[in-house]
């Protein structure tokens, strides 16, 4: 068993290493949302280790008996070093048995926290190996947005809800929690139902889970405990209103056998059957008759009206105590939504943007999201390496015939390649024996000839001059039309064709 003093010293050392690792981790610049969230999760894990070691260190300091026994064993006989040599022998024996021991478990744990994230290491498929990405659904997009579609469906299925809301309207209703309690727009009858309690419980579970996943450095548990303590004070003081049962005259009285209608003097086994008979003519007539009478008839199988009144008077909070859970969860959800207000606003903007897209654009967006993202630039890689990676991606174009690339960076069609004769070499005497791939007429200006289609595939100076003389003899003056079509501009901005410009210049007019 290790010395308690040595354990304390080692724990202090580990705490210092964790603090340095936390500083190193949080001081790195975070260029993207993904890297920031990964860093926060690692920092949260380091803080958990720090908390556990601080608790162990506190317990060690509080164990005064073990510390006193350790000190006494070392200082009882100053001249006797037997205990020292006994411990030294155990240490030497350990290293003699394990001479080439690798790094300790703590060193491996610390190295794992400071390891380069997968996207910084250049792994193109880092998303598949990223444990943080597995925490979020596709709709949440790595913690950027909330996925409240299931809660929205449950909200619209509440009893006595009145008007159903669209998804954007539902998000607006949650955003209203910043100024008042969440779902204050619902009627009292709706909030006192059992289905509302189930709904608000599911909403609270999701918001709490998302808060822990998307904001790991926020101590959401402490915030929830403070909000619950504040709610308990208000509940005991009776400041949390609108959670009492509505008990109108002639209304239903529940007991173990069913629901008793005082107006109709009849027992109904189910709530749905009771609700259905409320609109019948018989019930309406019985209710009107009961209103005109002095004493309403009581339920023969249940407690009397006086007993119910005495019970409610004895305990004012007894009627609303069964709704305490729903009231508490509503208050806790309000506190969570206040912290998630920026994310909720981003979620609404994203939903509005997606609603404006066509079906084809949505499919294209899903395809782009499913593709692995290229690793972002980082401090560990140089610009030259990133540029080389991009060039390698561009060179992966399938081009077995080695066709020239077009304006879009893709190989041109093969028929166009054959049409222009790009597979034939032309050594042009006119262009100082330059070799061209395909037909050309670029160097004819050097001979005073226009670059027209008549001179395509002409590579010798003698052939070009002979063809020009032949065209002149045949009256083909169109080869000289370019001289008259070419436009020149003088110093004052006047535009002339080439022949007129040369004539005016010879006369000294320009």
UniProtKB/TrEMBL annotation:
One annotated GO molecular function: zinc ion binding
Biased composition annotated in UniProt, kind: Basic and acidic residues: 362-371
Main subcellular location: nucleus
Alphabetic keyword roster: Metal-binding, Nucleus, Zinc, Zinc-finger
Keyword field contains Transit peptide: no
Biased composition (Polar residues): 289-308
Occurrences of domain U1-type (ranges): 256-290
Name of this chain's protein: U1-type domain-containing protein
Gene3D superfamilies named in the record: Classic Zinc Finger
Region (Disordered) location: 285-318, 362-395
Gene Ontology cellular component annotations, sorted alphabetically: spliceosomal complex
Keyword field contains Metal-binding: yes
Any GO BP annotation: mRNA splicing, via spliceosome
InterPro entries with a match to the protein in the record: Matrin/U1-like-C_Znf_C2H2, RNA_Proc_DNA_Dmg_Regulator, SF3A3_dom, SF3a60/Prp9_C, SF3a60_bindingd, Znf_C2H2_jaz, Znf_C2H2_sf
Cellular localisation: Nucleus
